[in-house]
Amino acid sequence: MPPEDFKSDLTYRTISIRADGPGTIDAEKRSVEAIGATEDPVEVFDYERYAVVPEILLMSGCQLPAARQVPLLDTHMRYATQDVLGSYREMKVDGDKLIGRAFFSEVAEAAGPWTKIREGHLTDFSVGYRVNESRWIPDKEKQSINGREFTGPMRVVTKWTPRELSVCPIGADQRAKARSLTTKKEHEEMDKLREFLVLLGMPAESTDDQLRAFMDNIKARLLAPQAPEKKTVAADPEAERAAAVVEERKRITEIGAMCRKFGLPDEAARKLIDEGASLDKARVVVMDHLAT
After folding, report:
1. Which among 94, 101, 100 has a CA at the least distance from the CA of 39?
2. Model pLDDT for residues 77-111, shown as the tens digit of each residue
3. Cβ neighbours of 13 (radius 10 Å)
4. Are 37 and 98 in contact (CB under 8 A)?
5. Which pLDDT tens digit goes with each residue over 134-164?
6. Residue ranges with strand state E in the chain
7. 274 vs 285: CA distance, rounded Å
8. Going by C-beta distance under 8 Å and a sequence separation of 6 or more, which residues neighbour residue 170?
9. Region 44-68: what's the mean pLDDT?
């Protein structure tokens, strides 16, 4: 059974910008209208059953935030303010669709995606949402929900909350199953990140929010400037050189082992070693790799 905090984590499904009617691009406001979600079945990874299953989001169960706004992110990255490209605003349920406008900030990191959208090279968005209540319908069984009949196997989400909208390079309409399997891989990477942070002192039972807070704190501490060590006259220069060799071998060994264990490429480990990176610096690099 997957950890409890994973079962309540975000689910993702991909949609495309509206290119006609009132959904045309507004260059002055740096915005474009986007369909955030529909009631069409989409394959997602279900952590209750640990399998890819068809899922329907009922618009009657969409619980919009009071501000009708959520962050606009870069490919579901949600670990730093730099990941926020703008916001998805003016959200409303229109029949079987969730509709809103994606507004792009004027910060440098939003310039590329916004330009590619205006040029027509980038068309896909992916909504991240929290499943609050759902009903599982077994294979070939029929159930009536809110006056509508559904046939399994299928997960019908009766209450859900939009949490973010992301700009993405590839849409689920082309490879829906591959997108769902990517979501599974993201959670496997989250397992590795959790394991790594536990080694650095994070309580194993930490929630996702506590994990992110711990990661920010430990990263700041590891990167904090260190007071220079006071130089002392060595009583035995040969012994000091031997100790330095031992420390250097330890640094190389630990960086190599850490990178191998948590999936960093060999060239990344070699770069850290060749540049003389400290173990703390290497830990931050591994942390950033797992977080992305």
Report:
1. 94
2. 777 788 899 999 999 998 988 888 899 999 999 99
3. 24
4. yes
5. 999 999 999 999 899 999 999 999 999 999 9
6. 11-16, 31-38, 42-46, 51-57, 70-74, 84-94, 97-104, 124-137, 142-145, 148-151, 154-168
7. 14
8. 14, 124, 179
9. 86
